[in-house]
Amino acid sequence: MKKKLTIENNMLLVIGIAAAIVIVIGLVAIISWQHKPQLDAEPIVNIESDPLIEQQVVFDDYNVLITAKSLTVSEDGVRLRLLVENNRDQTITIPSIDLSALNGIMVDASINCTVDAHKKMHREMLFDSSQIKNARIENIKTIQFQFNLLEQTEAGTKSLYTTAPISIKTTVDPDLVQNKSFEGTELVNERDLRFVLHATDSVRHAALFAVYNNTAENVEINAAIVSIDGEPCENVAINSTTIGTGMVRLIEVEVPNNIVAMSAMSSYELQFDVTSPSSDIAILSFSAILSI
User: Fold this and answer.
1) Is 85 exposed, middle or buried (0-12, 13-18, 19+ CB in 10 A)?
2) In 3D, which of 206, 195, 283, 203 has the Cα closest to residue 252?
3) Fewest beta carbons within 10 Å, which of 105, 261, 273, 292?
4) According to the model, what pLDDT value does residue 290 have?
5) How far apart are CA 54 and CA 58, in angstroms?
6) For the residues of 27-96, what is the DSSP string, one character each?
7) Residue 219: closest CA among 238, 198, 252, 192
8) What is the pLDDT, as a whole number, of residue 268?
9) What is the DSSP letter of 165?
10) Which pLDDT score is estimated for 4?
């Protein structure tokens, strides 16, 4: 069942109280929520504890050996240093990192990894600094990720193997608890999926949503603008992402500049569609109208 929610914010306030009018199946409720400071344009990672990892093998198959060597924290992000040993007769590639998370909160990670046959190279996996900042991660206890290993042949590129989730624990005190509660306006909480409007940015016409996936599988989320000032428009896809089972992800949605420049926009409607990666059937679909 599709739902439509109306969120009215005083976007000019940096910190203040706003009201959310939530319309669910014909019922209207007024909910107060604490408006958060504007999102940082250039966030700086602030990890309080120095996380260390023991050198460990994270993948050993198909004549490929990958060892996690160290973890480095700097202002521009968190870097996991890997030693990749290719004992195959063909060049291998790891094009991207999937379902990456720190402390159970999903944080995008990237890697540039191509290793020639019978060579070994050090490569770094970089976790996105803005997402670390938005998630308020100050200590790193666990690192999780998976990847698709590719091989380059004369006939082209082929997939060798997709790993199961790989988990690495650091030396940070295991009793430290990561705060996964992101306050704001709850938009939807059903079918083991919860959406919370956590923060907004009036300058960039952006909004930050906390999404909790308590289902038994990974889910895909697509967000699109479907109307402006109440007038339907051609759907503009602005975010598509996957959330691992049992994980939390902060999704930042920003209205494209070409839409902002079209008119003196006062509101826009976001539609969220949640599907299973194994099918195109929608698990949940709803929309939210944000007033600027």
Assistant:
1) middle
2) 206
3) 261
4) 85
5) 11
6) EEEEEEEEEPPPPPSS-----SS------EEEEEETTEEEEEEEEEEETTEEEEEEEEEE-SSSEEEE--
7) 192
8) 86
9) P
10) 60
Using an 8 Å Cβ cutoff, are 83 and 104 in contact? no
Determine the 3-state secondary structure of 188 from DSSP: strand
Largest CA distance in the chain: 65
Torsion-angle region of 18 (φ positive above 0: left; ψ -120 to 50: alpha; else: beta): beta
Distances (CA, A) of 138 to 72, 133, 134, 249: 14, 9, 11, 16
Place of tokens 């996690």: 68
pLDDT at 2: 60
Question: Could you tell me which residues come within 8 angstroms of residue 98 by beta carbon, excluding any fewer than 6 positions away?
Answer: 145, 146, 147, 148, 242
More confident residue, 254 or 193: 193
Three-class DSSP category at 260: helix
Dihedral sign for Cα atoms in the order 258, 262, 267, 271: negative
pLDDT at 43: 47
pLDDT exceeds cutoff 70 at 16: no
User: Which two structure tokens, joined as six digits, stand for 31?
Assistant: 């909910």
Lookup: tokens for 121: 């190279």
Give the chain's radius of gyration (CA, Å). Answer: 21
Q: Which tokens hold the place of 271? A: 């539609």
Give CA separation, 259 vs 204, 207, 208, 224, 235, in Å: 12, 15, 19, 12, 12
**Nearest-angstrom CA–CA distance, 51 and 49:** 6
